């Protein structure tokens, strides 16, 4: 058999040839068997090399393995879905269908979202529902909307919330969320209750603190608080980092009782003995995080199987759901699909979507794995699952080492070679007569991959069948007939960010709290109604984080929101600004901004600052350490001013209220970058009538 077909299903059974063609004649089948060859593109038996053969038994007679908990993905950690919300219809709904709609595309079982905490969490900040202790708003950001869209398509999808950062008031002056565990528990439970009260969303699981230290006392307080409020059905996942929490769980029965799932990140398909001893569900609660080309698809295919085969993990959750952030931020295109151009409507359904479908379209949470080893003798792996009602799904992957390396951890060398696998179905599966076949082959030479193709059904004869496997393939063999590879009309072609872009923020009831296309990197910039302004600045954009949050990475000391095209070289940025902080407040507009995300502290660019004390500066960095020009401006707080920054080639100039303030400042680097706005510190400030024109 060639790459597109299956071998015989046992002596006297029906097989199928390349690309799912009908079975050969009985005489040809006997010739095939006698010569020991495979179906292939050429005449069978001519110059063919016999493949190594191994047998595998699938039997539910002795009981089942662990319960399957589903495949999912993360939105957040952070701001990874930022641009998705700005897509126009029908493209936004098409993207959501590919992610969540059952038997359509990825058909995800789980959606995990960031509980925004106002701090930088990889590719941006996500707003908290409680910026301040006496503040509650359950409509900020876009995760509420995303969870509702997921539930609309799949009412059975499981929802998880996990914080990366926390607003400053949680720590009462310390960069630590555990000193006051009842305060932190109150904050998290407020998010859970708000999800239900304002959006009718039932949260299924809650996490502790992403990839940071766990605190046993806090976990117990959170569990007790949930139980007291009648939220016993909400499971706690801990600790979303390594497996170390399991060491404490096996010696602390109260902690063990508090935790429902032991979740590890990027476990390399391996677990540890203590995790098994907890007798809890084991999940890879964040994994993948790999560029979404064919190698990324190979990584995803391998770990979806091997997290269970090697590590007994019954759920794998990808970071991230959809690469919907500026690609030049850290970890660009590390999503299951790509949707980073709301201005054009262009998106791309990447190979990992269809690799996901091999599992998600033919299983459901609550199914069980069969008790099998799962390692193929020629390299690769398989898992088999059942619903306990007679249905059987087998997923096979033969990913090679160099074509399946994830971003982390390092992958030890291994070999995979062409092979034949013979499966014997026993127990309740002995009566299975036919299996539906779905096939993918990742092509690393011509980029002509076959993705999630339905082949001719496979006949099973007397409880057995054989399949010829080449390298870098995925097969799903299933009794279910519900699989579909759906497609929408082709989206519009890609286009760069508009070279002439304006936003006056004049919207009374915005659908989201953030203005389109602005990507906050430190601080949070929200639509604001300025009721005290009688003139042209009633509707503005306001920076609202006034204390440094409990951080996950090294947030900048200044706030900043970027926008535009990272390739921009020559540009003019104009914006009305309003400093609210007296004496030492300040704001900036910027161009050629070269960094963001977890690297925001090292951001370079051309920054035009004005301060409440009547001075200005031009700096080559966000930190303000590389001063290119400074002087007096006459700017004061509590008044509107218009700033203009013009960068052409190696020279920059600035205008204040339409009049030149400084000029002929020499710019050596960076050579290109985004436009940006921001503030001197964590302080209130407003922006209006933003305009960027690039050439």
TrEMBL record:
EC number assigned by the record: 3.2.1.46
Enzyme class name: hydrolase
GO MF entries: galactosylceramidase activity
Top-level taxon in the UniProt lineage: Eukaryota
Gene Ontology biological-process annotations: galactosylceramide catabolic process
Signal peptide positions (record): none
Localization per Swiss-Prot or TrEMBL: Lysosome
Main location: other
Domain spans labelled Glycosyl hydrolase family 59 catalytic: 68-361
UniProt entry tagged with the keyword Disulfide bond: yes
GO cellular component: lysosome; membrane
Coiled-coil residue windows: none
Active site: 211, 286
Domain Glycosyl hydrolase family 59 C-terminal lectin: 520-694
Keywords: Disulfide bond, Glycoprotein, Glycosidase, Hydrolase, Lipid degradation, Lipid metabolism, Lysosome, Signal, Sphingolipid metabolism
Alphabetical list of InterPro entries matching this protein: Aldolase_TIM, GH, GH59_C, GH59_cat, Glyco_hydro_59, Glyco_hydro_59_dom
Catalytic activity entry: beta-D-galactosyl-(1<->1)-sphing-4-enine + H2O = sphing-4-enine + D-galactose; a D-galactosylceramide + H2O = an N-acyl-sphingoid base + D-galactose
Domain (Glycosyl hydrolase family 59 central) ranges: 369-484
Family: Belongs to the glycosyl hydrolase 59 family.
Entry protein name: Galactocerebrosidase
Organism: Anser brachyrhynchus
């Amino acid at each position: 058999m060639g790459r597109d077909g299956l071998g015989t299903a046992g002596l006297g059974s029906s097989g199928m040839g390349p690309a799912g063609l009908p079975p050969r004649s009985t005489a040809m089948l006997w010739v095939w068997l006698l010569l020991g060859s495979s179906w292939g593109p050429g005449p069978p038996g001519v110059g063919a090399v016999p493949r190594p053969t191994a047998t595998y038994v699938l039997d539910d007679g002795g009981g089942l393995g662990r319960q399957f908990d589903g495949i999912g993905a993360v939105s957040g950690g952070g701001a990874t879905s930022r641009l998705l919300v700005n897509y126009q219809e029908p493209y936004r709904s098409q993207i959501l269908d590919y992610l969540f709609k059952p038997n359509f595309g990825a058909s995800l079982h789980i959606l995990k979202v960031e509980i925004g905490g106002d701090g930088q969490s990889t590719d941006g900040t996500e707003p908290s529902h409680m910026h301040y202790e006496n503040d509650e708003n359950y409509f900020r950001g876009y995760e509420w909307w995303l969870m509702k869209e997921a539930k609309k398509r799949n009412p059975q999808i499981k929802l998880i919330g996990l914080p990366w950062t926390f607003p400053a008031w949680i720590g009462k002056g310390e960069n630590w969320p555990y000193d006051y565990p009842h305060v932190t528990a109150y904050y998290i439970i407020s998010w859970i209750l708000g999800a239900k009260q304002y959006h009718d969303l039932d949260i299924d699981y809650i996490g502790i603190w992403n990839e940071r230290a766990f605190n046993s006392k806090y976990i117990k307080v959170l569990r007790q608080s949930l139980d007291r409020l009648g939220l016993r059905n909400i499971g706690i996942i801990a600790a979303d980092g390594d497996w170390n929490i399991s060491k404490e769980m096996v010696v602390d029965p109260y902690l063990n009782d508090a935790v429902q799932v032991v979740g590890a990140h990027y476990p390399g398909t391996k677990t540890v003995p203590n995790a098994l001893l907890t007798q809890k569900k084991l999940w890879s609660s964040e994994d993948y995080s790999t560029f979404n080309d064919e190698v990324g698809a190979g990584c995803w295919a391998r770990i979806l199987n091997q997290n269970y085969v090697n590590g007994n993990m019954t759920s794998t959750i990808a970071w991230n759901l959809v690469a919907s952030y500026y690609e030049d931020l850290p970890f660009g295109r590390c999503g299951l699909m790509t949707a980073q151009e709301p201005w054009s409507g262009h998106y791309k359904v990447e190979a990992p979507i269809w690799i996901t479908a091999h599992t998600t379209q033919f299983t459901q949470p609550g199914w069980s794995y069969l008790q099998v080893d799962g390692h193929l003798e020629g390299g690769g792996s398989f898992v088999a699952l059942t619903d306990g009602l007679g249905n059987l799904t087998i997923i096979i992957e033969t990913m090679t080492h160099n074509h399946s390396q994830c971003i982390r951890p390092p992958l030890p060398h291994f070999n995979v070679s062409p092979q034949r696998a013979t499966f014997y179905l026993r127990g309740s599966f002995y009566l299975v007569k036919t299996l539906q076949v779905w096939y993918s082959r990742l092509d690393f030479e011509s980029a002509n991959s076959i993705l999630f193709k339905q082949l001719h059904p496979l006949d099973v004869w007397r409880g057995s069948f054989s399949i010829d496997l080449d390298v870098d393939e995925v097969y799903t063999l299933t009794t279910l007939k519900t699989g579909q590879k759906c497609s929408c009309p082709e989206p519009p072609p890609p286009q760069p960010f508009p070279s002439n872009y304006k936003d006056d923020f004049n919207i009374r009831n915005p659908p989201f709290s953030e203005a389109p296309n602005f990507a906050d990197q430190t601080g949070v910039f929200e639509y604001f109604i300025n009721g005290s302004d009688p003139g042209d600045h009633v509707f503005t954009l306001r920076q609202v984080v006034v204390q440094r949050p409990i951080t996950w990475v090294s947030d900048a000391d200044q706030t900043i929101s970027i926008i535009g095209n990272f390739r921009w070289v020559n540009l003019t940025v104009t914006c009305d600004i309003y400093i609210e902080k007296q004496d030492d407040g300040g704001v900036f507009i910027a161009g050629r901004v070269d960094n963001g995300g977890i690297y925001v502290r090292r951001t370079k660019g051309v920054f035009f600052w004005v301060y409440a004390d009547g001075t200005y500066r031009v700096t080559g960095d966000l930190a303000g350490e590389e001063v290119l020009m400074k002087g007096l401006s006459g700017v004061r707080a509590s008044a509107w001013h218009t700033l203009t920054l013009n960068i052409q080639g190696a020279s920059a100039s600035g205008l204040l209220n339409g009049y030149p303030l400084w000029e002929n400042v020499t710019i050596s680097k960076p050579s290109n970058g985004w436009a940006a706005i921001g503030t001197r510190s964590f302080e209130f400030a407003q922006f209006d009538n933003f305009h960027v024109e690039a050439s």
